[in-house]
Amino acid sequence: MFDVIIVGGGVAAFSAALFAARRGLKTLVIGKDVAGQANFTDLIENFPGIEEIGGFELVSAIRGQAEKFGAEFLQAEVSKIKAAGDSFVAAAYGKQYKAQSIILAYGKTPLDLAVPGEQELKGKGVSYCATCDGPLFKNKIVAIAGIGDIAADAGLVSAKFAQKVYVLSKTDKLVAHPALIKALFKKKNVELLSFVQIQQLLGENKLTGMELLDLKTGKQRQLPVDGLLVELGYVVDSQMARNIVKLDEREQIVINSDQSTSVPGIFAAGDATSRPYKQAVISAGEGAAAALACYDWLMRRQGNIGLTSDWTKIKKLK
Amino acid sequence: MDKVHKLIIIGSGPAGLTAALYAARASLEPVVIAGLTFGGQLMITTEVENFPGFEHGVQGPELMQKMIAQAERFGTKMVYEDATKVDFSRLPAPEAAGNGGQASSPFKVWAGETEYQAKSVIIATGASSMWLGLASEEHFRGKGISACATCDGFFFKEKNIIVIGGGDAAMEEALYLTKFASKVTVLNRGDKLRASQIMVDRAKANPKISIEYGKSVEEFLGAEKLSAVKIKDATSGTVEERAIEGAFIAIGHKPNTEVFRGQIELDEKGYIVPKDQTKTNVEGIFVAGDVRDYRYRQAVTAAGMGCMAALDVEKYLHMDQG
């Protein structure tokens, strides 16, 4: 029996494991892979305190840190979680693991464009995170695939750095917030390419261009670009959590401000949650908070003192 | 003062500097009012073991220097002065009438004597150590009483000292002080420690440390320097006088919000009241870190909030420009 099972293998999961283990909790992390979304990022330069680090390297470091304090890691995919009395059972690869509490931190994956060339050029000009990679496209030509809020955001972010930004739409408009659209097309270096569809990404070890289909004329043409930001949204694979915690319409786990979910004893952190920010440092912070909230819940359930805030302390002193 | 900046960040701990890093990378050219004693609480911490990504630990001041360098690398301007006054009132500008009323006069922040103006502000001033509040405590501050073992530990070489408190910070101070002191006694008010198990285990395993429960300090005594304390036992109610040579107060923190009083909504204990993640009751003013968080108070939770605040500011400024 573990005190807590953490589902996931990214920044949020191992950060939660670090804080849980340091609180003396018997901690098991079960992840399908190590690094999650950070795997898609070759170079992170916005994790505070670390000038530059690869995504995989960062997650590996946090994993090592968590293991140093006693957390265990199992590489497996959790297929089901169910309540069993006042504890939980997680099923992974035919085995069952029991714990008093659960932290869900299985992340989410950006949607692929699903065109030829995309898999090969990921991290080589094809990016899924404008905030992460925008500055890397300084003075370059960038295209945005996507027409929603996050695409418009990505356009605004890259317009600050890129020489030219093409926003591609299969119609002649975007569906983002009007204020965002207005701000976007105010930028002199942003241009909307209407009625086009991306057919193929070109380039050997580096993206050099795209093959576009003109939906009006049916003709194909090539557009040279150095970068492509695929901003179609994220998919969450919440299969395993669906029948146990409350999810929103986008399959994201609904969390309260203290990282708790609709089920007492189950907490969530990172990109799998309904919180609208997707950055490594935020996931790390949420992982830590989820572990501390979980610790607090476990302690209180056993009748011990949980986390004491400065508030109670001040009151006691008076 | 002639320039209206896009963003001023007040405070330079993990929250403020992570906000600066993100804002700078988004070309917001943030100005950080870092304070005369910059870097926040980690500057008075030795080894930080729980900042994710530092597998082998990192010294607190070193981590903060790295964060400053990183924020500066992307165009953050650091101002090493204290924020002495702020004006968050927004007079609607005539030209703002057709703009949803959003764009109006800028916010004002004074750093020392200099006035800075900005369209948005992130408050990340953190929290500071609390004191017991005894008159004798104030008298002996710097003469045997300290709230920072890392700063003053060295002066207590081969001395018999006490640490007051029962949380992680108290255990950390006690452990650190064993490097210098001959004997460290932890006085805890309640009958249980609040510190994390790993810290309690370490403190208990250290032969120089002893922990006493149900004990509180009534008065500090001495001539020039601290030489004894009056300790009250909660169970028996008796008061004993004990000779000691140093005392460290590790009982918690209070938010650094004096300068914002009357300008922004604070709760009864002085913490800033957050609305919808990092927003506050004043549109355009955002908040991150320990100044709004009395619960978790970790460097990495503060950093995460700093990042959120910067992303929220970026969105706000896009909207503000129409």
Outline the structure in words.
The complex is a heterodimer of chains A (318) and B (322). Chain A is α/β, with parallel strands linked by helices. Chain A has 2 domains: 2-109 and 234-311, FAD/NAD(P)-binding domain; 112-230, FAD/NAD(P)-binding domain (3-Layer(bba) Sandwich), CATH 3.50.50. Chain A is built from 8 helices and 17 strands. In chain A, the strands form 4 sheets. In chain A, strands 1, 2, 3, 4, 5, 6 and 17 form a 7-stranded mixed beta sheet that branches. Chain A has a 5-stranded parallel beta sheet with strand order 8-15-9-10-11. Chain A has a 3-stranded antiparallel beta sheet with strand order 12-13-14, with no helix packed on it. In chain A, helix 5 (149-159) runs parallel beside helix 6. Chain A is elongated, with a radius of gyration of 22 Å. Chain B is of the alpha/beta class. Chain B has 2 domains: 4-128 and 253-320, FAD/NAD(P)-binding domain; 131-249, FAD/NAD(P)-binding domain, CATH 3.50.50.60. In chain B, the strands form 5 sheets. In chain B, strands 1, 2, 5, 6, 7, 8 and 19 form a 7-stranded mixed beta sheet that branches. In chain B, helix 6 (197-205) links the parallel strand 12 and strand 13 (209-213). In chain B, helix 1 (14-25) runs parallel beside helix 7 (299-320). The interface between A and B is large, with 61 and 62 residues.
Please supply descriptive tags for the structure shown above.
heterodimer, A: 318 residues, alpha/beta, FAD/NAD(P)-binding domain, seven-stranded mixed beta sheet, five-stranded parallel beta sheet, 8 helices, elongated, disordered C terminus, B: 322 residues, 7 helices
